[in-house]
Amino acid sequence: MKQIFGTTEKQKSAEKDYAKMPKTTDNGLSSALNGINDIYQYHPTAIIDNALVGDGTKIWQWTHICDGASIGKYCTIGQNVYIGPKVRIGNNCKIQNNVFIPEGVKIESDVFIGPSVTFTNVKNPRAVISRKDDFKSTVVGLGASIGAGSTVLCDVVIGQYTMIGAGSVVTKNISDFEVAFGNPAVVVGTIGMDGGNIRHFEKGDE
User: Fold this and answer.
1) CATH number, domain at 191?
2) How far is residue 172's CA from residue 85's CA, in Å, rounded to a whole number?
3) Which pLDDT does position 181 carry in this prediction?
């Protein structure tokens, strides 16, 4: 990724810090300086198009980040992750290996996405019909967690601090602090901000 450095004092300071850093670290990641002077690390096999990556973020092997995507500060992006055009990811997110995030998805800060989670952006895809003008949006709220192997169908909102169980298929909105799992995912309880204080609904609870 080509970097263009400016001449402001902040930019000069960032360039000096970057120049002192080892360009390949012990963990095999290389360092880069983006257009707003944030330093992030990426594996040499990662493909980073014209995307914005925040300070302290680490990007691992074989990941592709497409044009117009934005990733916040101090995120970890695992191996073989696809982040589509114009995807928005907040700060302090952990996105595990083999996750697919297409255009139309917004992920707020402090979100955990487990291995092999898949998001979609078209409700009725056909191989021979282009539906790029019909992409639907999906939002994952602040502090939410999505378990390994889950699928999130498009045009839903996963609320703040929700917990989605592994292997679930999310087909509708999940409200803040709710626990949901299954195919299709159903709400089975509530959870605290720190992942504790879990309350399971009894039969007949609303």
Assistant:
1) 2.160.10.10
2) 24
3) 96
